[in-house]
Amino acid sequence: MSDIQRIRNFSIIAHIDHGKSTIADRIIHKCGGLTEREMKQQVLDSMDIERERGITIKAQTVKLNYKAKDGKDYIFNIIDTPGHVDFGYEVSRSLSACEGSLLIVDSTQGVEAQTLANVYQALEINHEVIPILNKIDLPASDIEKSKREIEDVVGIDTRDAISCSGKTGEGIDEILEAIIKKLPSPEGEQSKKLKCLLVDSWYDSYLGVVILVRVIDGKLKKSMKIKFMSNNLEYVIEKVGVFTPKPTNIDELNSGEIGFIITGIKSLSETKVGDTICDSADPIQDPLPGFKPSKPVVFCGLFPVDSSEYQKLKDGLAKLKLNDASFSYEHESSSALGLGFRCGFLGLLHLEIITERLEREFDVNLITTTPGVIYKVHKTKGEILDLQNPSNMPDPSQILKIEEPWIKSTIITPDEFLGSIIKICQDKRGIQTNLSYSGNRAVLSYDLPLNEVVFDFNDRLKSVSSGYASFDYDISDYREGDLVKLGILVNSEPVDALAMIIHKDFAQKTGRQVCEKLKDLIPRHNFMIPVQAAIGGKIVARESIKGFKKDVLTKIHGGGAVDRKRKLLEKQKKGKARSKQFGKVEIPQEAFIGVLKINKET
After folding, report:
1. 287 lies in a domain?
2. Is residue 290 in a domain?
3. What are the backbone angles phi and psi of residue 209, rounded to the nearest 5°?
4. Which of 326, 356, 371 finishes a domain?
5. Does the pLDDT value for residue 192 go beyond 70?
């Protein structure tokens, strides 16, 4: 048996919390990757935030040696992938580096929306898939029902499905043997010219950029000069290694293997995920197809609560960007919030993770503006503008139409919650495209505007379904919408940080809610402050914050008191008018945070 036939490259795919990382732990332990003392739960989830939330954010790899029951030695390269929709990009590139997948389904919950999305990604690139039913040690486990769901919803034969428990270790030996028998070995030839796929890259403060590669043909050796085909940059390899799961230096990586190289690169922008690496002395002609670049779909402004923390925020964003190519940011200034950044994310969980890491790792207190999406504004002169920030919206007279991004979503829910979920989708301007059943679970397909989903859709879905519904989506296309810019004016001054693009049907109601909220949160001044919501030049809602009134008449009594009182009141009135004209309204941070929490449908 040649070396390459002994290799098995596979990913572990599943919905969130179905046990991917735990089963990876069991396989690592069984293959002797770590000793009993070094083992800890979710060993591949290296970030604190991954451990606390119990989710995988970055895909991790590990190389293991396994002695099969037939006495032969095999090499396993595992990639543990994230399960959440916001990290689907991590999943797609991990799958491209493998030939097979372990599909893990929680036998107490059955097939979920993200299970479906990940399996379809694997089947699209012709992966061999082994179905595994996890958590059989739990009393609620129903193996036969889960098998039927996999066959009905996913369409995979489950006669050879393996039942296991990541917690007790039952069934792990069967999984290891199935990997050898059912998953194909990689195709590739040692004698051919070097061809590698760049799977991932991240920044290490000691080593610079670490590049994860899958060698297709040829071999990678230390001191070899390599070339990145997308930008024609050439580098000399300083280190070659594999994760076992500890980083271990080796002399060379052969075809079919997955490992890392270090070349002294200091900037992540030079290492494009999906790039092809070849030998600069003997280059190949055609690069590999690569991956679609990830595009941010949700945008919001991040501003420090204390303006003196601006530099700290800037440094924090730069460091996070080093390890996350799918995150983008640019400078932004707001008259109300000062200096900050406009940031792009793959989804709301991605936004949440980045903001939490900024606050935790870099000790920055943040204000996050309302999340929004990219709109395509078609102007009357034929120009098309990509609009992220509502405050940059052109005058309505120059706009021909506005298009917004729509998504194709899949919601899997127990039957009893179906009515409430359909109502939420209709409230969010959704269009139902399909409804099918598997047992007592409904698989619901909806087209929805992304703008309505990014705000609170997931939270509402979980609350009406007691946490049982699962949701997954793909960006589909742009469609014309009846959208307007809702501006907020305080003392006749527009507050750019509170401007939002919203569907016309919701504008008046939301405007009224924002004005009511600001009335409670902005402190009183010496003069009356009008708080208004406007669409273009039309005011659609208004509240007034009363000014303090000093009693100037207490000391006046005796002859001619009426005239003197009138004069003093006139003088006070003029003073208030002048202070209203020149006075500056201080809007506290709590007011911004309060408004951002307003739910459109409360």
Report:
1. no
2. no
3. -80, 125
4. 371
5. yes
